[in-house]
Amino acid sequence: MAVFGAPIPSETRELQERDARTAVACAREMCRRFAQLNDGWQRSGKPTAGLRIGLYSGAMVGCTIGSRQRLEYAVIGDAVNVAARLQALALPDGDEGERGRILIGDTTRALLPVHEPCERVGILRAQGTRRARERVSYSGRLT
Predict the structure, then answer these.
(1) How far apart are the C-alpha atoms of 124 and 40, rounded to whole Å?
(2) If we measure between CA atoms, which residue out of 118, 105, 121 comes closest to residue 28?
(3) pLDDT one-digit tens code per residue, 73-90
(4) Helices (H), 44-133
(5) Is pLDDT above 50 for 140?
(6) CA distance to 13, 44, 52, 72, 93, per residue, from 97 (Å)
(7) Residue 3 lies in a domain
(8) Would 7 be classed as within a structural domain?
(9) How many domains would you assign to the chain?
(10) Is residue 1 part of a domain?
(11) Cis peptide before 7 (omega within 30 of 0)
């Protein structure tokens, strides 16, 4: 999991847009490098894997938990849960192949430039969150 805009909150629209663009750029780079790994594995006769990424923007609570021996930064909240649901969502056309797949929620899509390539896929029912019906957008695979 990666978190953008933490531990110092991005309180202005400009900073939130920057965080969304950075998250999308990171996800695209992850897909690009993952595809390279899969290409190498395939050439050497090894099995390949799929990659799913879920991006969602929203409020969350971040804190350091643990002990002096082992501290860990953690985030909780609906935004974290919806991002996890987006990542785990299996689409009917099985698009999480060797090139990877990025799903973004409408809150993140609203922060991106209008020319960002994105194809709507429908409504995710994000059970266990306050936003039980969340619109989902699909950013597509890198080619």
Answers:
(1) 34
(2) 118
(3) 899 988 898 898 888 887
(4) 78-88, 106-109
(5) no
(6) 34, 18, 9, 32, 10
(7) no
(8) no
(9) 1
(10) no
(11) yes
* Structural domain boundaries, residue 39: 13-138
pTM of the model: 0.82
> For 13-59, how does the pLDDT look when each residue is reduced to its tens digit (9 = 90+)?
999 999 999 999 999 999 999 999 999 999 999 999 889 999 999 98
Q: Which residues contact 135 (CB under 8 A, 6 or more apart)?
A: 105, 106, 120, 122, 123, 124
Cβ proximity of 59 and 9 under 8 Å:
no
In a domain, 41, yes or no: yes
Which residues are bridge partners to 124 per DSSP? 134
Looking at residue 96, what is its pLDDT? 63
- CA separation for the pair 127, 135 (Å, rounded): 13
Instruction: Copy the structure tokens of residue 101.
Output: 């797949």
pLDDT digit string, tens, across residues 79-129: 898 898 888 887 766 666 667 888 888 889 899 988 888 887 777 766 666
Neighbours of 16 (CB within 10 A): 20
> What's 99's domain CATH number?
3.30.70.1230
Strands 101-105 and 133-138: antiparallel
